[in-house]
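User: Hi! I have a protein structure encoded as tokens and I'd like to know what sequence might fold into it. I'm fairly new to this, so please keep things simple.
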């Protein structure tokens, strides 16, 4: 005999909906997944996001969920938000981090990559990159042609200036500066 939302245990054991309690099983509500859009700056420094209903209706402060974004989280990271007994949210929610594109940097693992366009003259003489980091600092990085030739596939690696490592935010990946040389037009 089935009742709405409940299932009896069979002689073969528990089914996929949960454990048996007095021979009656309650069907668990499906997990809700929601995208959590994060800028590269938010993933670099860490932040707290307040998430509300998209319906446009007025909400009380208790209807707004606060989600902690730890420094170094990666695209696709799942952040569970389990329902508490006294909360008005309907089911367990999992927020999935979705990294938004950045205008200057791209991310590969824990490394940050930026491309600098320089002239052929700068490539021959040497070049100094002035970069604003995701936390607002300014880095001055000499890219010298002395001892190394700046060529179209040249990449300067700056250790420890990449993304924080989520398991240990005191450690960071690398910053990779890729050089793109603008060649003069020959007439």
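Assistant: Happy to help. Inverse folding works backwards from shape to sequence: for each of the 187 positions I chose a residue that suits the local structure. Here it is:
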């Amino acid at each position: 005999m089935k009742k709405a939302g409940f299932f009896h245990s069979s002689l073969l054991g528990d089914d996929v909906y949960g454990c048996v309690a007095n021979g009656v099983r309650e069907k668990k509500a499906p997990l809700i997944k929601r995208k959590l859009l994060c800028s590269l700056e938010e993933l670099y420094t860490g932040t707290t996001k307040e998430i509300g209903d998209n319906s446009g209706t007025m909400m009380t402060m208790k209807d707004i969920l606060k989600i902690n974004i730890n420094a170094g989280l990666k695209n696709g990271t799942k952040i569970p938000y389990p329902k508490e007994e006294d909360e008005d949210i309907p089911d367990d929610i999992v927020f999935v981090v979705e990294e938004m594109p950045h205008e200057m940097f791209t991310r590969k693992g824990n490394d940050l990559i930026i491309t600098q366009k320089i002239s052929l003259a700068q490539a021959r003489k040497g070049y100094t990159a002035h970069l604003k980091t995701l936390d607002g600092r300014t880095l001055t990085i000499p890219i010298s042609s002395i001892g190394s030739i700046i060529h179209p596939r040249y990449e300067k690696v700056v250790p420890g200036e990449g993304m924080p490592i989520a398991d240990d935010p005191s450690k960071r990946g690398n910053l990779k500066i890729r050089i793109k040389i603008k060649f003069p037009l020959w007439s």
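A useful reference point when you look it over: The CA atoms of residues 85 and 91 lie 10 Å apart. Feel free to ask if any position seems puzzling.
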